[in-house]
Task: structure prediction
Amino acid sequence: QVQLVESGGGLVQPGGSLRLSCAASGSIFSIFRAYTMAWYRQPPGKQRELVASITTSGRTNYADSVKGRFTISRDNAKNMVLLQMNSLKPEETAVYYCNTAPAVREYWGQGTLVTVSS
Result:
């Protein structure tokens, strides 16, 4: 069974920062380093969107809206994917999820809620 557990969300003021973590476990993720991993987000009432991804070799890709403000990284030894988010905006209020890229439906976790508000 594959499990992805996101954490690190919370309430932050506009312009603030948060660091999200995703821990991967399960038999498939014993070869975690073989997967491109990604962060996605789903704002209230909107569709889920890709925020950032990181390949097995560490190459990163970002949505245009977060370039220069968000940084994705991975720790293969710990089976973890991180997302450092700076200069957050109110419109980035969303539930943030991690998954492989492309995403696998069965891997979606509960996500972690990020609320950007004053």
